[in-house]
Amino acid sequence: MMIATFAPEIGHFALVLTLALALLQATLPLYGAARNNTALMALARPLAVTQVLFVAISFAALTIAYIVSDFSLTVVASNSHTAKPMLYKISGVWGNHEGSLLLWILILAVFGAAVALFGRMLPMPFRARALAVQAMITVGFLLFTLLTSNPFDRLDPAAVEGIGLNPLLQDPGLAFHPPFLYLGYVGFSIAFSFAIAALIEGKVDPAWARWVRPWTLMAWVFLTIGIALGSWWAYYELGWGGWWFWDPVENASFMPWLAGTALLHSAIVVEKRDSLKSWTILLAIITFSFSLLGTFLVRSGVLTSVHAFATDPARGVFILAFLIVVVGGSLALYAFRANSLTPGGLFEPISREGALILNNLLLSTAAVTVLIGTLYPLFLDVVTGEKGTVGPPYFNGVFIPLMAPLIAAMGIGPLLTWKRADLKAAFQRLIAVAIITVVVLLVLMIWIGGVSPLAALGFALGVWLVAASIGEWMIRVGVRDGAGLWGRIRRLPRAHWGMTLAHLGLGVFVLGVAGVGAWEDERLAVMKVGESQTISGYTFTLTDVKPVPGPNYTALQGVFTVTDNAKQIAILRPESRTYVNPPMATTEAAIYPMALRDLYAVIGESAAPGAWSVRLYIKPLQGWLWIGVLIMALGGVVSLTDRRYRIGAPQRRSMIKDPTPSAQPVASE
Amino acid sequence: MIGRVVVVLTVLWCSPVMAVGVDEQTLPPTQEAVARSIMKELRCLVCQNQSIEDSDADLARDLRSIVRERVAAGDDEAGVKSYLTERYGDWILLQPPFNARMAVLWLAPFLIIGLAAFLLWRRARFKTGMPDMAPAPLTADEQAALDRLLDKDQRG
Amino acid sequence: MPVRFFIPLLAFLSIAIALGVGLFLKPAEVPSALVGKAAPEFQLPALDNQVKGLSRDDLAKGQVTIVNFFASWCAPCRVEHPQLIALRDAGYAVHAVVHKDTPKNARQFLDKLGNPFQLIGTDNDGRVSIDWGVYGVPETFIIDGNGNIIYRHVGAIMPDDLTEKILPFLAKVQS
Known about the structure:
The complex is a heterotrimer.
Chain A: H1 2-35, H2 38-42, H3 44-67, H4 74-79, H5 86-91, H6 97-118, H7 124-148, H8 172-201, H9 206-237, H10 248-273, H11 277-300, H12 313-337, H13 352-384, H14 392-412, H15 423-429, H16 431-447, H17 453-477, H18 485-491, H19 494-519, E1 521-528, E2 532-535, E3 538-549, E4 553-564, E5 567-572, E6 575-579, E7 584-588, E8 590-593, E9 597-608, E10 611-620, H20 622-640, H21 652-655
Antiparallel strand pairs in A: 1-10, 2-3, 3-4, 4-5, 4-6, 6-7, 8-9, 9-10
Helix pairs in contact in A: 1-3, 1-7, 3-6, 6-7, 6-8, 7-8, 7-12, 8-9, 8-11, 9-10, 9-20, 10-11, 10-13, 11-12, 13-14, 14-17, 16-17, 17-19, 19-20
Chain B: H1 2-13, H2 29-39, H3 58-72, H4 77-88, H5 100-125, H6 140-155
Helix pairs in contact in B: 2-3
Chain C: H1 7-23, E1 43-44, E2 54-55, E3 65-70, H2 75-89, E4 93-99, H3 103-113, E5 120-123, H4 127-131, E6 139-143, E7 149-154, H5 159-174
Parallel strand pairs in C: 3-4, 4-5
Antiparallel strand pairs in C: 1-2, 3-6, 6-7
């Protein structure tokens, strides 16, 4: 009880101590690296590790305050409630601006400590510099938290009861969505710190690419899962079955994902060919900058969004200043130092490098497009004072022409050789894949018919990518080369497995998008108990409507029996819930996922005595969309286990044996 | 604190839950389809980035019933939209009328990719055709060293 | 140093400037389509027998009037109420439209917090509010003597709004 009483003070104090530690870590090792002072450089590690300890204490203190419902804390009183289930008391810690910042700092500290502990193979000056940069980011976030958004602020007098957490957020999917998202955002800070350290040293080489890869990949996996969780939550919780809305807050998480994906690919070129170096450094900076920008957009009130946190101009000013220092500072450093990075291996446009550059070109343009679309209303307002908005029609209209060539090229790219490749030969090896694509498409058109050109394009791209990924894998392991196949499969590097899975996953995802876009069927109706509605061949019968109690809500549950040709398929129980604290109604969709389609039902309020408004959907291939994303994330995980890319990466000296000529003392221009 | 109350209330207004609720009588199927397609293009003004079809806000419900009423009364899409823009301005249209400013937005990605491709092509032009083993340009240090040597040569 | 290495920095700085300006704009405040136009035609029944109802004719009697849309269930309306009383005390004619509320609750609200309104119409189905382009309560309009809408305030009138925006605007119109 004593601990619970003073937990907020302990947490606050721990946070202030962390700030002191972070300030030391941001300066001493950097100075040490410049002066070649080993003792100072060596300080980075213990500082980073101690820091995580103090942030953890602080975070634990806030969590305790939520668990014991300490309403003398402003954040707890405004976001929690005694009647809330324990899971949501805990997830409430990060379900608001102040707490989520603390979570961000905790993850930042954990990543910093991970670099300190597992980056033993990094050269000391490099590690010292990278950790110092990491600590600078921590300092910024700590100042922001302590000065404008302190979660340990007391409420005097204490509230008797809390306001409660928005019921929409009381959901398992959303409980874990922010932590994953932040693990992704913050994970990119490592790539950023490594890039800044490399710029300070003026040296980027294949070893650098190997160091940065596992961290970037890890961040990418987390971000992928985080975005998918958010999208999945929107799908089942918001009750109209959409999965992506191009809302500014969604875009804020999508921009770093696009840039991070580009970074993963360009780092391969640095690693294998010692080329594309200044561009890769720029991408590392931009990827993390997008993460920071996302934070700014969500918390500053510059853009309106359904999901935005409560906003406050003081916070906006602070984050903007921070953004200018971090992003502006690093881009300025880049502008002055990028030229010192020596360009590397040369290559023909048609080559693996060329394909990866095309990937980067399209992904970066996509990221910038999302940025422009998201900020356009702001630009318009600033320049002309007009109000305008940019909605899904724009993003869809621009994204499809960018993604279609990317996916088409993804099928062939992995078959191209480095330096110089034969496009025709590569395509010939995929001729079977091309035939499969055409046949599947024709079967679809004839069998189902009436597919729009856009949907047909989607299916073609999806089938092409899935088949080409499998085809490339078969060629790589030599399926037709006879004996020893099992050995070849086992010897295939994990990184290659990762690529195959990630590309395959994207293909499955594209098929899901195309399927739900082409054949979604919807019915809005008023139904009485005993009545039926038939939609896409499935008959939904409303067999019962009854009240059900919940822990902190009351619900009206509809019971639908779904039959297909008189055979019972599923029983769906959608609910319309009324929460007490805060008073709010939510709908809980009932979803029955099947291999080829989801059945989806929502029940609303009573439309007339004994009659309820309902929404029924058939969502073809919806499940493929999530499974595709999961396969992509799985690909990232598999790739992470590749021995060559373990976090304890090889030393620079052993790497330099790379056969690529990177610097010869002869004039060239 | 007052500010916080206001914010909480705004959040409640905008609860993005599909309202298939109270007093929403649907129209006969063909008219309902027209009404629904119009609703998808109208902004729920309170929530701003949602269409009135997607929003549970009180205002969105009222607007939905107005759309259904006008459609039932025989208004076409343009008629319903102008009825609402008279009251709420163009802002109520999720997709504003296409004008020069919007053209900039739509063209931007293609300009960017065109520009990037051009820069790449220009840089790649003197790389292709070169033998693969062409040496890389000098680093700053090497250049400085070379300059010193050349300088010495000239003087010597 | 090749110029191209500066492109990202310049691009970022222009975004930062826009964000900086954007911080002080209010994206949620959208200009009314009706400011500068005549107030819409309407006629609303009185809240109860203690007051008279409100119609368009009441707004075109040669004197500047203020029309406030409110409801007793709306918390920001409570917050802004003292400012409306201050407007009445400053000598302005303040009228109200009660938005989707029961007469009993609205009357209790006024009994408890004071009644700054001269005329009070009730808009039960919210249709008149929509004709006025109202998003949600509270909203406040200023009408010139000829029945034209000349100012609109969305959301609660906070004390700062009163002293910095509304009173100066009214003073300018009067002079």
